[in-house]
Design goal:
heterodimer; A: 275 residues; alpha/beta; Rossmann fold; 5-stranded parallel sheet; two-stranded antiparallel sheet; globular; B: 321 residues; 7-stranded mixed sheet; 5-stranded mixed sheet; 14 helices
Chain lengths: 275, 321
């Protein structure tokens, strides 16, 4: 499909992400920007079956944000997809908001389950996929993990379980941006070749450029259509802070809000990229 | 008045854990969308009985992976199932506390944490396996209800109650065979405590296997001219304030007995209630801030001063205040 309207959506998402984090004065821009294209492909690129007017609609595809600190990316996506008014994004992290620092399913429409404690999302997604399979119900369960998150042992408990149960209706996407709070994942505690690890656990593995919207739509949609009796891992190579030059590849922007001046520069860059 | 065991029923001894699989199988047969998620202990916890009853597809064995077990249950709950988790209490709560807190409770999911082998009932396996802090851990979680049934019939009722109650529930079960206190078809209500024996001099609030010890102690105390009221606070949270306060208004003295640490469990819950609403002297029967050790269950009850003699001593202490 023509990626350019989607690219415009993704740029707009990024602008919303940096704006809402700047307004909040805290949050996680790096890992939100790295996964913005993945979320765009899923929700706005036609990969996921979903209905903002009926978020719990039977037969929908599911999305579980394992890396819950990328909540701003999810909220911006949900706003662009029609689950939330975009105006509400500026309430991020403020007292009384539906947009908690990490996703709260009891407050925010479109959030399937609360996340934020790393390492749990893949297990929840596997349980969800198993629940759908048990009842013979339609729907693919997508979950998005960080590469640093894959240092959590529970991820591999879930990887083993999903393969053992033959959960072909499960797609785990790894946002492989190579950085975590304390630095490069390779330096902190190297998770190694994650594609090879998932393959060794019995998963189908596809690698993709996590900023190529056309390729993301094709690969994620392909994993969904493939179904079968093996779970699907999509290793998406990304750049942390993607789209904002001074944040790109900088671990220091994992959990820091831009100030007013930095926001102005970031928004100008994102706008220029679209011209 | 709650239905108590007939003399024939009281002569039976059964473990509370034996209630888990058979009750889940009954609920499944009744059409409830129950599932069980366990971690390589389906025989010990008895969740295997669900599969044996023809519902094999409803039993999810995660292998030795308790954290995954809890979150798989969360996913099953998201898709409309009433998910019971197994394993031993020490691993089924402590190993997976963050999963229970941040996923099950924070999302308010229909997951019933129902491990077995709690307290010193696991006996010879020793301190690594004797969970004495689980009620404390679970009681502190927002939205979690905490049930500690006294016998097999009460455990069956507690499991049914957990299944019928939306949201997270903790059901604590043991390995040891204990005498039946309740009638086979007893029904228990959420948030209720039950007066099992009326008395006027002291209130003994107990739950789990300590119900038997409390009733034995009350009998012995009666011989010494002391009238003890025995209350089964099987529901630690929400605690039945009315029943406990009405009793304490009458007796003015309280003993709390539990097969659990004296820190953070039923004793703490009762003390919190009394301090706020009706200050009264309280003595605690429980494990005193230490780990368990290997031994037979009955030996351990004596060793850790959890037996009826310890309850009698606690009553004498609190009456001397």
């Amino acid at each position: 499909m023509d990626a350019s309207p989607l690219e415009a959506e993704a740029r707009s998402l990024r602008a919303d992400i940096v704006s809402m984090i700047a307004e909040a004065g805290s949050g996680h821009p790096g890992g939100s920007l790295s996964c913005a294209d993945i979320l765009t492909a899923l929700y706005l690129g036609g990969v996921m079956e979903h209905d903002p007017a009926d978020p719990k609609k039977e037969g929908r595809d599911w999305f579980i944000l394992a890396k819950g600190h990328a909540a701003p990316a999810l909220y911006a996506t949900l706003a662009h997809a029609g689950y939330l008014p975009r105006e509400e994004l500026k309430t991020l992290r403020k007292l009384g908001t539906r947009l908690q620092g990490h996703p709260d399913c009891r407050l925010c429409p479109g959030v399937e389950v609360s996340t934020g404690s790393l390492g749990q999302g893949l297990s929840i997604a596997a349980g969800t996929a198993a629940g759908l399979a048990l009842d013979g119900r339609a729907g693919t369960v997508f979950t998005l993990l960080g590469d640093g998150e894959c240092e959590e042992g529970q991820v591999w408990e879930a990887a083993m379980f999903a393969a053992h149960r033959g959960l072909g209706n499960l797609v785990a996407i790894v946002d492989l941006n190579g950085l975590q709070i304390d630095g490069a994942t390779a330096d902190v505690c190297d998770p190694g070749d994650l594609g090879a690890k998932f393959a060794a656990f019995g998963w189908d593995v596809t690698c993709v450029d996590g900023h190529d919207l056309g390729a993301l739509v094709e690969v994620l949609g392909g994993a969904k259509r493939a179904g079968g009796s093996r779970p699907h891992a999509v290793i998406a190579r990304t750049v942390k802070g993607k789209g904002v030059s001074f944040m790109e590849g900088q671990a220091g922007w994992h959990g820091k809000a831009p100030n007013a001046e930095e926001l102005t520069i970031a928004l100008a860059e994102l706008q220029a990229a679209g011209e | 008045m709650v239905k108590l065991a007939t003399p024939e029923q009281a002569a039976q001894k059964k473990a509370t854990r034996a209630a888990l699989g058979v009750t889940l199988a009954e609920l499944a047969a009744e059409g409830l969308p129950v599932v069980a998620v366990d971690a390589d202990l389906t025989g010990s916890t008895t969740t295997k009985k669900l599969a044996d009853a023809g519902f094999a597809e409803r039993l999810f064995n995660c292998g030795i992976a308790e954290q995954n077990m809890i979150d798989v249950a969360a996913g099953l709950a998201l898709t409309g199932h009433v998910a019971f988790t197994g394993s031993f209490a020490v691993f089924g709560t402590g190993r997976a506390y963050d999963q229970i807190r941040n996923t099950v409770c924070y999302s308010g999911l229909d997951v019933k944490i129902a491990p077995t082998h709690a307290g010193v009932s696991v006996g010879p396996d020793g301190g690594s396996h004797q969970m004495l802090e689980d009620v404390s851990l679970m009681r502190g979680l927002p939205g979690m209800r905490v049930l500690v049934p006294a016998d097999y019939a009460a455990a069956r009722a507690a499991i049914r109650l957990a299944a019928a109650t939306p949201g997270p529930v903790y059901v604590r079960m043991g390995r040891a065979s204990v005498p039946c206190v309740y009638a086979d078809d007893v029904e228990l209500e959420m948030g209720r405590a039950y007066v099992l024996r009326e008395g006027t001099d002291v209130t003994i609030v107990a739950n789990g296997v300590e119900i038997r010890e409390a009733l034995l102690a009350a009998e012995e105390l009666a011989g010494a001219g002391i009238s003890a009221e025995v209350i089964d606070a099987f529901c630690v949270k929400p605690l039945d304030a009315d029943t406990i306060l009405a009793s304490v208004a009458k007796t003015g003295r309280v003993v709390v007995a539990e097969e659990h640490s004296v820190i953070g469990g039923l004793g703490s819950a009762v003390a919190e209630l009394l301090v706020a609403r009706h200050p009264a002297p309280v003595a605690f029967v429980g494990v005193r801030d230490r780990f368990g050790k290997s031994g037979e269950f009955e030996e351990l009850l004596r060793y850790f001063e959890l037996d009826s003699a310890a309850v009698v001593e606690a009553v004498k202490r609190v009456l001397a205040v």
